[in-house]
Write a structure and sequence with these properties.
5 helices; five-stranded mixed β-sheet; alpha/beta; 142 residues; 46% helix
Length: 142
């Protein structure tokens, strides 16, 4: 499990400078609607207080269903602080970024091949074989 967290960290670190990250529930929903074939991984991140946010849980359910229907690998991430460090948790002006949903995309025609992404995708497929459709992982502390 730790190696999957490290692989996910590598994927995010590699995808960010390429512009292959979409951050935010609404931005992710728009991206999924426009071009789902471009999405290679969906991350849903929560903190303890988010469990009581009914609207967020509804969004998560819809995003999960869409990803499963479109064969997009999906993971739950528990460490939002580490996720914020990896993808930049603050907008210009100091406003926090909505990190509840993060998409990793691979633009059409791109030659981006990432062994870390292959490892994460393999973990997702193994989890589905065990009837765990949305596995939960922890990103390693930095």
């Amino acid at each position: 499990m730790d190696t999957v967290g490290k692989a996910l960290e590598e994927v995010l670190s590699s995808a960010l400078p390429r512009g292959c990250i979409t951050v935010g529930v609404y931005e992710a929903a728009k991206s999924l609607n426009v071009d789902p074939d471009n999405v290679v991984l969906c991350l849903l991140a929560t903190e303890e207080e988010d469990a009581q946010d009914v609207a967020l849980q509804i969004h998560f359910t819809l995003i999960q269903a869409f990803c499963c229907e479109n064969d997009i690998n999906i993971l739950r991430v528990n460490n939002m602080r580490c996720l914020a460090e990896l993808v930049g948790g603050v907008k210009q002006g100091g406003e926090p970024v909505d990190l509840h949903c993060v998409l990793v995309t691979n633009p059409h025609g791109s030659t981006w091949k990432d062994p870390a992404l292959s490892k994460v995708n393999g973990f997702c497929k193994e989890s589905r074989c065990l009837d765990q459709w949305v596995p939960v992982i922890n990103l390693p502390e930095r």
